[in-house]
Amino acid sequence: MNSDIAPGKLAPVEPRWSQRRRVLIVLCLNAALIIALVVVGIMANSVSVLAAAGDTVADCLGLILGLIAIILRDRNPDHPRAHRPIAVAALINAILLLGVITTVVVEAIGRLQEGSPAIDGLPVVVVSLATLVMMLTGVFVLGLGSADEDLHMRSVLLDALADAAIAAAIVIAGIIILATNGLYWLDPVLALVVSAVIAVAAVRLLVKAIAALRGADVDFDDD
Prior knowledge:
Blueprint: H1 19-44, H2 47-75, H3 84-114, H4 121-142, H5 151-180, H6 186-213
Helix pairs in contact: 1-2, 1-4, 2-3, 2-5, 2-6, 3-6, 4-5, 5-6
């Protein structure tokens, strides 16, 4: 038995795939969704779906940066600053998310003030169900244990979980809109809720990334 393991705790399970491979798979899943979300968001006139599309674009950019950071780190993992690229990628990802949130909030508030336009609920439900399946697949690929690996892997997992929850909420709103042929205000309200969820995760990630860049020993399992 490994004497370094505290009593009552199980040894950490090694992931089946490397970080690089898992992040690449999640990147492909996200990239496959972007066009569908944008097209449906515009056709259905849904700001919540467009919010999800914007979040997915930001996620893809963050994942690309994360892949680069992982490659740089793995070239010399014993270097004192080997994990610095990971913190930089997480910082940029958080900033991108906050930028997307600002745009969505402005649009959602504008729709609520002017009166929410009609929304086609069926395509919203279909694309959101597809998004939910893809994000849950991403969570499975990453593994829940990835939250304890490093800051970037934690951010990728949190993004996937948040996106799955958001997709589920949009499915519910789409079903209500489809069933009632009304209540269109649910769409911008849901977009604001989505933005709030993303904002909380982005701010936490931003704080951790800045702390890591300043040399702090960041605890990735304290949320």
